[in-house]
UniProtKB/TrEMBL annotation:
Pathway: Carbohydrate metabolism; Entner-Doudoroff pathway. PANTHER family: D-XYLONATE DEHYDRATASE, PHOSPHOGLUCONATE DEHYDRATASE. GO terms for biological process: D-gluconate metabolic process; Entner-Doudoroff pathway through 6-phosphogluconate. This is Phosphogluconate dehydratase. The lineage of its organism: Bacteria, Pseudomonadati, Pseudomonadota, Alphaproteobacteria, Rhodobacterales. It catalyses: 6-phospho-D-gluconate = 2-dehydro-3-deoxy-6-phospho-D-gluconate + H2O. Residues 67-377 form the Dihydroxy-acid/6-phosphogluconate dehydratase N-terminal domain. One of its GO terms (molecular function) is metal ion binding. Residues 405-596 form the Dihydroxy-acid/6-phosphogluconate dehydratase C-terminal domain. The gene is edd. It comes from Aliiroseovarius pelagivivens. Its cofactor is [4Fe-4S] cluster.
Length: 600
């Protein structure tokens, strides 16, 4: 089917807006390609330094001209999502040697977990860790001894940071190798129910701990559809994974076979090969539009509304909230994965997963089939990976959903529009994830209750002060105020109030993760309070209307936006847990509408 004219128009608009910056970027990529692999230009001393630790590969590196793969890894053994990467470099090197090539670990990048730091001081470093990861990966690749690259990363800030770095080395062919989700534990609904009981004092800490350990129990990503798994979806829709690689669990023969096949593919598309595919050509306007379509069709994480503009800008492409809103209006919600439903990503994968979804969206004209990918074009991703001996074979993904409670065709979706909506009005711009919110709560009008930190909300809740309908305004949580931590720790309190029959919503210049749940939340509000945005002028009792149906966010109290902006002492955000090292990032951060990045 021909590409939908609206999708074409949105893509053309992005291309026109990005014309000059994209042309400048591609000119730099072309110059680097023309210069050829830098390994050939290094001094003998420089090469000797680069190869001295290569062991059995040292002679091949010094005298051969076969491709050398650079591995950038987010491995650590504290976080389940990245622990499986421990074995990847050895396997990659083995496969490279079998192909007459070499591979080296170029360097590592930090990988922090928002689940561990949720509600803790360390969360204030989380968003800016994306920029640190980009810079650390750039340092790893700066030795310029690589003909292709493999990036090992999964979670929230790691993949976006690695993409930004990969775009900076746009002349180098690049694949991303995932680790996959952990096997399913207790249901996400059961876990959430225990959290609510603990918030009301109806469950003990021991019961809460037992529940959490039963949910997060082994290697791999968390199984709910939060930012980590949204990243994996995105890499497939944008053609940076191998087809069908995203949701194969760790420690299985198919997982290892996909890692081996990814290594072979990296060598196939390396510099000097017939299928040479520099990543700067993959990361084009069509790829980012395809990624946006995937985000909406799956009801993915709101964090990607921050990350995608930053990732795109690294490749000379300018995305705006208008692009998100227009694609959301065009693309139906095809999946119900927790917190948008009861299923986890393993159930989604078993129901047909990304292969089914991409195939169906291609049939409906809602993706660009001719987008350049590491597998040729996007049509290759309408396949699923199977094991054939110790090698991977690809076969067509199911044409029918294997569970229509989890996955439906675009012609019969769960919702006619995507999972995210843009909000704008006299309080600024923001976004809301509506795919998990009951339609009866898409419009909330209520008095404001102002807070400046999460603990104050919890204290008021425990004191029984939060009665009636309330719109919680939690401000001074933006990138310039305190690094824009996630506020997921509020979810149990808000959920309890909503379950009691109160109409509640959250308005914040902070952010919520892909696990933000069923309470309406206007997030990423910009301009932020620390920049004197309208949200800094609201007082307790002002009437606010959050209307996700019409895409508006407004204070209705006359004269509210004419008041002076509230000033608060933010000096306490500047030290402890490494925060003093991030002052430059806070001062340089762009608005949330531009990705909240501090590096460009």
């Amino acid at each position: 089917m021909a590409t939908h004219p609206t999708l074409t128009a949105i893509t053309d608009r992005i291309m026109e807006r990005s014309r000059d910056s994209r042309a400048t970027y591609l000119k730099k990529v072309a110059a680097a390609i023309e210069d050829g692999p830098r390994r050939a230009h290094l001094s003998c001393s420089g090469q000797a330094h680069a190869y001295a630790g290569a062991g059995a590969d040292q002679a091949q590196l010094a005298t051969g001209r076969a491709p050398n793969i650079g591995i950038v890894t987010a491995y650590n053994d504290m976080l389940s999502a990245h622990a499986p990467f421990a074995s990847y470099p050895d396997l990659i090197k083995q496969i490279a040697r079998e192909q007459g090539a070499t591979a080296q670990v170029a360097g590592g990048v930090p990988a922090m977990c928002d689940g561990v730091t949720q509600g803790e001081t360390g969360m204030e470093l989380s968003l800016f860790s994306r920029d640190v990861i980009a810079m650390a990966a750039a340092v790893a690749m700066s030795h310029n001894t690589f003909d292709a690259a493999l990036y090992l990363g999964v979670c929230d800030k790691i993949v976006p940071g690695l993409i930004i770095a990969a775009a900076s080395f746009g002349h180098i062919p690049t694949l991303f190798l995932p680790a996959g989700p952990m096997t399913s534990g207790i249901s996400n609904d059961e876990k959430a129910e225990t959290r609510k009981k603990f918030a009301t004092g109806d469950a003990t800490r021991e019961e809460l701990m037992a529940s959490e350990m039963a949910a997060y129990h082994g290697p791999g990503t968390c199984t709910f559809y939060g930012t980590a798994n949204t990243n994996q979806m995105l890499m497939e829709f944008m053609g940076l994974h191998l087809p069908g690689a995203s949701f194969v669990t760790p420690g299985t023969p198919l997982r290892d076979a996909l890692t081996a096949e990814g290594t072979r593919r990296a060598l196939d598309i390396a510099h000097g090969k017939d299928q040479f595919t520099p990543v700067g050509h993959v990361l084009d306007e069509k790829a980012f539009v395809n990624g946006l379509v995937g985000l909406m069709a799956t009801g993915g994480s709101t964090n990607l509304v921050l990350h995608l503009p930053a990732m795109a800008r690294a490749a000379g492409i300018i995305l705006t909230l208008e692009d998100f809103a227009d694609i959301s209006a065009l693309v139906p919600l095809m999946a119900r994965v927790y917190p948008n439903g009861l299923a986890d990503v393993n159930h989604f994968h078993a129901a047909g997963g990304l292969g089914y979804m991409i195939g169906n969206l291609l049939e409906e004209g809602l993706l660009h089939p001719d987008a350049t990918t590491n597998a040729g074009n996007l049509t290759a991703y309408a396949q699923e990976a199977k094991l054939n001996g110790d090698r991977v074979r690809w076969e067509p993904a199911p044409r029918e959903s294997l569970n229509d409670k989890i996955l439906r065709p675009a012609s019969d979706p769960f919702q006619k529009t995507g999972g995210l909506s843009q909000l704008s009005g006299n309080l600024g711009q923001g976004v809301i994830k509506i795919s998990a919110v009951d339609p009866d709560r898409h419009v909330i009008e209520a008095p404001a209750r102002i807070f400046h930190d999460q603990e104050s909300v919890k204290t008021a809740f425990k004191a029984g002060e939060l009665t009636g309908d309330i719109i919680f305004v939690l401000r001074f949580q933006g990138p310039r105020a305190n690094g824009m931590p996630e506020l997921h720790g509020l979810t149990p309190v808000l959920s309890v109030l909503q379950s009691r029959g109160q109409r509640v919503a959250l308005v914040t210049d902070g952010r919520m993760s892909g696990a933000s749940g069923k309470v309406p939340a206007a997030i990423h509000v910009a301009p932020e309070a620390a920049d004197g945005g309208p949200i800094a002028r609201i007082r307790d009792g002002d009437i606010i209307r959050l209307d996700a149906t019409n895409g508006t966010l407004e204070v209705l109290t006359e004269g509210a936006t004419d008041r002076p902006a509230v000033q608060v002492d933010l000096s306490g955000n500047g030290d402890g847990c490494g925060r003093e090292l991030f002052e430059t990032f806070r001062r340089a951060a762009r608005p949330a509408t531009e990705g909240a990045t501090s590096i460009f």
